[in-house]
Write a structure and sequence with these properties.
By secondary structure, the chain is of the alpha+beta class. It has four domains: 161 residues, Glutaredoxin (3-Layer(aba) Sandwich), CATH 3.40.30; 329 residues, Alpha/alpha barrel (Glycosyltransferase), CATH 1.50.10; 66 residues, no CATH class; 97 residues, no CATH class. The protein is built from 24 helices and 19 strands. The strands form six sheets. A five-stranded mixed sheet has the order 1-3-2-4-5, sandwiched between helices. The chain has a four-stranded mixed sheet with strand order 17-16-18-19, with helices on both faces. Strands 8-9-12 form a three-stranded antiparallel sheet. Strand 18 and strand 19 form a beta hairpin. Helix 23 packs parallel to helix 24. The longest helix has 20 residues. The protein is globular and about 85 Å long. It starts with 10 loop residues before the first helix and ends in a 9-residue tail after the last helix. The relative contact order is 0.09. One of its GO terms (biological process) is carbohydrate metabolic process. It comes from Streptomyces radiopugnans. This is Spermatogenesis-associated protein 20-like TRX domain-containing protein. Pfam families: Thioredox_DsbH.
Length: 700
């Protein structure tokens, strides 16, 4: 019989609905049941595309004897970390504090009051690699619960007290928090330079993750300060990733991370957030340099998202699994993506297979498992015929499409869709791809229709067009606002600016403390053992820095001092962290670059459909000036309200477009920052020089 998870909507929870374990979803009822039975709670946290989650499920949760033991002595609770990032964050912090490391599956034992007292991640079915077996852990925890209850309570109490002491607060003494100054951003650059892998790109060693937010900071730092070293780190990293196995050389899109330091062998799951962030990074690299490879990768990644992750409702699914059927009934990681020389010959014939093996690095020994290779590009472009290579690529892609496909987690996460909206809107605008802008708009429409209620509150997830039960967290509000602001800049449709303001007002009202610090959950959210609060980036921008960046952009669009001050207070944490952990505060550093530069406010006024308006608008969008905001629209009627929003026939005109007439009857661009404006211009080349629109001369 199916367990209680059969009634859930999360694809990850549904994967466990037929386990013999009597799973509960996260709920007060589960903890009440543990209290009634006087047993501990086993909390198991994972996500649908997590390889080792699948392994532990098959080894332990599908095993009848293990399930019987769990059912007799525990209340077992299964959580999808993507649906409940607040639960995941609180207990992951405890795991990392206690063990020095974390990861998924996360295995935590709790009292019926939700207090953790024993931790781990993956446990094997038999002892190996220095790990006890899962059964040994279960028996040891049960013995401690039965025979040493006071010790368990003492440990749990100490952990909860330690977590409570980790809250971040500016306090009411000393100077007010402030954004980083040039010297702190310079110190961050120096720290990144020390950790940069000059041979392979990226930062640190294996496993190596795409440093998307850090790359955005480096691009902005180069634009503001002229640091060639910052740009070189971006170019080297993006080149290495684009040539490596982490990038799908046939179908586009990026895998989650590389298991080695040279980007050769990926962990094959493909996540929406990685691809949205990297699509934007490569588009911004093209904008800064005109790089043809950056253009190809940006468009290839955008096309992957639309082709492989778009749902029938217009949103974007969370992930593709790392594992798939290898054609023999076995589920293996990477089976969909890897090739042997014999498989190349079977598709291409001898001559083209030889070319493909040399071009994509396929060897008889293999670079992965069982003699298979991950496709990648050589370190230098060779003389191979481009047309022939494209023919090889398209034939391999067609053949691969006949393989059993990885499973897709088709729930839509608000935050990650916000990132995708921003990436697709900008990429579509840069490269004259209105279909990408339309895809971004459709996803935004879905978020408004399904995720956003009349009170300005977001649901975290949806599936099949129905909202999930989990409340949105801070990253949802920050990233969706970011997406809406990007969509406004590209389309000129003021509804997206207004909706971003609605979301950011909720941030100020529900997520912001009196001293300007931010929490990951709303003040009326479910109370956990601690209210999560983390300003550092993980795989995506932290909610704290995502909200700060969106507040800053919204203030530039509207002239709102309230939003500007909130952004600056929030960026105070970046001032403290930038010199110490720059790799983990990249999006905050990027926002700080925007604050230092202004950010610049670019208003383009002119009749819709006028080619001169379109050229000025595109030039404005290609501005490399950090965090520059763009508004485009018809000139306001005479007597329109000023920047304070008062009076006039067009008081609803967005602030950047007010009091902006045509220039001698021609479309014009206005550029302002730090409360001062340049003279308006109708000349796209002059505008490009003013805002650093390098890509404007490269064309689409």
């Amino acid at each position: 019989m199916a367990n209680r998870l059969a009634a859930e909507t999360s694809p990850y929870l549904l994967q466990h609905a037929d386990n013999p374990v009597d799973w509960w979803p996260w709920s007060p009822d589960a903890f009440e049941e543990a209290r009634r039975r006087d047993v501990p709670v086993l909390l198991s946290v994972g996500y649908s595309s997590c390889h080792w989650c699948h392994v532990m499920a098959h080894e332990s949760f599908e095993d009848r004897a293990t399930a019987d033991y769990l059912n007799a002595h525990y209340v077992s609770v299964k959580v999808d970390r993507e649906e409940r990032p607040d639960v995941d964050a609180v207990y992951m912090e405890a795991v990392q504090a206690a063990t020095g490391r974390g990861g998924w599956p996360m295995t935590v034992f709790l009292t019926p009051d939700g207090e953790p007292f024993y931790f781990g991640t993956y446990f094997p079915p038999e002892p190996r690699h220095g790990l006890p077996s899962f059964r040994q852990v279960l028996e040891g925890v049960r013995a401690a619960w039965t025979d040493r209850r006071e010790e368990v309570a003492e440990v749990a109490g100490r952990i909860v007290e330690d977590l409570a002491g980790r809250s971040i607060g500016y306090g009411d003494g000393g100077d007010a928090p402030r954004p980083p100054r040039p010297e702190e951003l310079g110190a961050a650059l120096l720290g990144l330079t020390r950790e940069f892998d000059a041979r392979h790109g990226g930062f640190g060693g294996a496993p190596k993750f795409p440093p998307s937010m850090v790359l955005e900071f480096l691009l902005r730092h180069h634009a503001r300060a002229g640091s060639e070293g910052a740009l070189q780190m971006v170019e080297a990293t993006c080149e290495a990733m684009a040539r490596g196995g982490i990038y799908d050389q046939l179908g586009g899109g990026f895998a989650r991370y590389s298991v080695d330091g040279a980007w050769i062998v990926p962990h094959f799951e493909k996540m929406l957030y990685d691809n949205a962030l990297l699509c934007r990074v490569y588009a911004h690299l093209w904008r800064a340099t005109g790089s043809e490879r950056a253009r190809r990768v940006a468009l290839g990644t955008a096309d992957f998202m639309v082709r492989e992750l778009r749902t029938p409702q217009g949103a974007f699914a969370s992930a593709l699994d790392a594992d798939s059927d290898d054609g023999t009934g076995r589920h293996r990681e990477g089976a969909y993506y890897v090739w042997t020389p014999a498989e190349l010959r079977g598709v291409l014939g001898e001559e083209d297979a030889e070319l493909a093996a040399a071009h994509f690095g396929v060897t008889e020994e293999g670079t992965f498992e069982e003699g298979a290779s991950v496709l990648r590009l050589p370190d230098a472009d060779g003389p191979a015929d481009a047309g022939r290579i494209e023919s090889v690529r398209s034939r391999l892609l067609a053949a691969r499409s006949g393989r059993p496909r990885p499973e897709r987690d088709d729930k839509a996460v608000a935050a990650w869709n916000g990132l995708a909206i921003a990436a697709l809107a900008e990429t579509g605008a840069y490269f004259d791809r209105p279909d990408l802008v339309e895809a971004a708009t459709a996803a935004a429409d879905l978020l408004v229709a399904v995720h956003l209620d009349e009170g300005g509150r977001l649901a975290r997830t949806s599936r099949d067009g129905a909202a999930g039960s989990g409340a949105g967290v801070l990253e949802d509000y920050g990233d969706v606002a970011e997406g809406f602001l990007a969509l406004y800049s590209v389309t000129g449709e003021s509804c997206w600016l207004e909706l971003a303001g609605t979301l950011l007002d909720t941030v100020l009202r529900r997520f912001t403390a009196d001293d300007g610090t931010l929490y990951d959950t709303a003040d009326d959210a479910e109370r956990l053992i601690r209210r999560p609060q983390d300003p550092t980036d993980n795989a995506a921008p932290s909610g704290w820095t995502a909200a700060a960046a969106a507040l800053l952009s919204y203030a530039a669009h509207t002239g709102s001092s309230r939003h500007r001050e909130a952004a600056e207070r929030a960026l105070g944490v970046v001032t403290a962290l930038a010199p110490r952990v720059p790799r983990f505060i990249g999006w905050g550093l990027a926002a700080a670059e925007a604050a230092l530069d202004g950010p610049r406010e670019i208003a383009v006024v002119g009749p819709a459909g006028d080619p001169a308006t379109a050229v000025l608008h595109r030039t404005a969008l290609l501005a490399t000036a950090p965090g520059a905001v763009v508004a485009v629209g018809e000139p306001a009627a005479d007597g329109a309200g000023g920047a304070d929003g008062g009076g006039g026939a067009d008081a609803d005109t967005p602030a950047l477009l007010r009091d902006r007439p045509l220039l001698d009857g021609r479309p014009a661009a206005y550029v302002c920052r730090h409360f001062a404006c340049d003279a308006p211009t109708a000349d796209p080349e002059r505008l490009a020089r003013t805002v650093g629109a390098v890509g404007a001369s490269a064309g689409a």
